Structures are given as C-alpha cells and as structure tokens.
Amino acid sequence: MINREWHQFRTCLEFNVSTAPFCVAGPGAMNPWLSGDTPDMRLLRDALRSKRREMRALRPGDLPLVTANFSAATRAIPVGGDRGQPSRYVEPFSGFAWIDDATVTGFLDLMLTSRPAEPGFLVVRPRPSEARPAGPGEVDASLTYHLHSYFPLKQVRVRLEATAPLALGARTEIALTRDELGHDWPVAKELVDTDDVKPLVIEAGPDDLQGTHDVYVRVRARQATGDPQSLSHFLDNLQIECIHEPPPAGAAIKLAADQYGNLSYDDDFSTSRWHHFGEATASAPTHGGYRGSGFWVGLKGGYAISTKVLQRVSAPRPMKELTVTANVMANSTDLGGTATLKIGPRGGEPKWTASTMGRHNGPLTLVVPSDELQELTELDVIVELHSTSGVEQGAKACATFDSLSMRAR
Predict the structure, then answer these.
(1) CATH fold for domain 253-408
(2) Fold topology of 66-244
(3) Residue 326 pairs with which residues in a beta bridge?
C-alpha cells in the first residue's frame, strides 16, 4: 500500500495474489501499530482493517473472475527422438496434467468427466451459471502446447480422438505452427458434424518445420449452440510424436550462454538426446541401465553390479566456475545402493568426485574449485550407480539417476 492506493487490493484479488498490509510505527512496529491510540493511528488502522474485510467478501457477480478463464503453461514439453524411436507425449485427459502442460483459453467451459459418467474425457460445454442455467451458448476453448527439441525437428505427428456433434454446432480442430504468437497455423485439420469418436491426425515434415527447435500444437473446440447439460462433445487421447535431426557421431553437450555470461544445461532424460552425447553401460543389463525417463541399478543375487552414465560436455569459452548437479536416489543403509558424480577432462581420469551416503534422495552437487579448472572447456561428466547388496530383488532399484544440471561461468 502506497499513499492510499486502495485499487491495489482489487488488482491483487483479480490475480489471486495474497495481501499483507504492513505498517511502520516506531520501535517495535507491530505492537505500537495495534495499540496506538492517536487519531491518525486509529484512522489508518480502521481503514486497513476495513479493506481486509472487503477483500474477504465476495459481491454478487465477482465470480468467476475474468482471469479464471485463462492459464499459461508452466513449461515447454521436451521432445525429440530418433527415426524409428520417436519421442511420445501422451495426454489421456484422465487427470490434471493438461492444466500445467498447455496454455488454456476457455477454461471455464472445459470439464473432466467423472462418475456416474464414464471418466477419462475432457468435455466441452458452456459453463452453467445463474445468468444462464440452461439453453444454448457459444464456446471457444483451446489448449496450446509448446514443444521444444534440443536438436532441429524433422517430423511431428499429432493424433487426437474427439467428437463434434452436429446438434451443438461443434467443431474440433488440431493445428501446428512454428510461430510463437500463433498468427498463422499452416498445418491443421478439423472435425465437424459427427457424434462418433473419430481420430484427427496431422503431420509436419521437413518442409513445414524448416529445422526449428520449437513448435506449437493447438487443440481447439468450438460450439455455436452449446448445451450446459450435454457431455457429447469431448476430447480424448492426445498423442504427439516427434523425430529430430541427430547430430554427428561423438557430439557433446554445448553449454548455452545467456546475456550475462552464465552457461547452463539441463536434461531430465525424458527424451533420447542423452545417448548422442555419451553412453550408459550396465554390468547387468537385466538389473540396470536406462528405464522410463532415467537410469537405475537393481539388486542381483550374488553379485555387486553397477550402471555408468557418461556425458561429453563442451563450453564455448574457458570456465572460471562450474557446478554440476545430479538428481539421484541411493539407499546404502537398507539396499546397498550408492551414487557417485565424477568430473574430469575429456577422455581422461576423473579429477573431482562426490558420493551419496546413507539414504539419499535429491540433488548430488559437485562444485569444482575455481583454481583447479585451469580454463577447462572439454570435459566428461560421469554418474555411477552401484549395488553391493547381492540379494535378488528383480526390478527393484537401489539407486536411480533422473536429471542432470550444469551451471558455469
């Protein structure tokens, strides 16, 4: 609050920002403010308390807020796979992942089905309200996904199962563009006049993608005469497959530089790009290696086993600071599992190491001393997962590794 700018309360309410008025009133601040009995203090205190009560009160027509109809995606979805093994993003609309993954418009006109209706569909219908409890209404809702590939994209295929009932004047469309602002959607297909579930499929090739690293996929559903009680217009099983252009053999991670001179790289191993930068070897392939979106080592009867992941890294200039973080789980106390992070010059012996102890679940960080970097630009980052239990546990893991982060200057 600055100089009685009361409209700040309404702005905070609109964007769901908590408010906490604070006052400075001499030594102790809070107690003098609460107990001060001067006319000016009483006036200010009463005004703020009145505004606090107003913030907690909802007037007719306050809800839903205008901003409730929109939400922005929390991330760009990592994509990209090799020919014959494309990355695959799947949204079955059986949960709430689409709210985080997509930029949504028309949110209030979308509803996940639940019992007694069959669950697992995203229904499109005008939101019932006191002003319009029933009767036809227009709907225009969309989900836009931002897909990012580390390597240039070569092919993208999108498939959606949906309906578009004639009685609702419904249209369901999937479209793809390279334009971040979405002014033009050159690859698109629309479904109309059908109560049956039908697939919508679009494909973009090299001519459409032109070596881009980022594409945007939009799912759009419209109704001219929507019915708030109808569940017949819905979306199901969105699948996006992407193939990238692989780099030459022996490629290395290139630390990306920002305008402030910081270098960085992150990988959650949800795509296959990691194997172009190195390799993963398991001493017992049935009990370790790459699985799902990470690496693991299990417990093999009678043997101590390991999984080793190596990634080649290049910096655009000599580094003065370097911090590498691996997100690992390792339980040596109960399962005999440990994780070790190693860094060394390219092709040489590791010079710096960090290891887990006891029960560890989270970041394993290794900071290379600045005076030991010696203007290093080419290096290897190695994560080793070890299992010493010797007790057979099948697919159970005693150590895992599922993300890598590097920060340098």
Answers:
(1) Jelly Rolls (2.60.120)
(2) Jelly Rolls (2.60.120)
(3) 364, 404
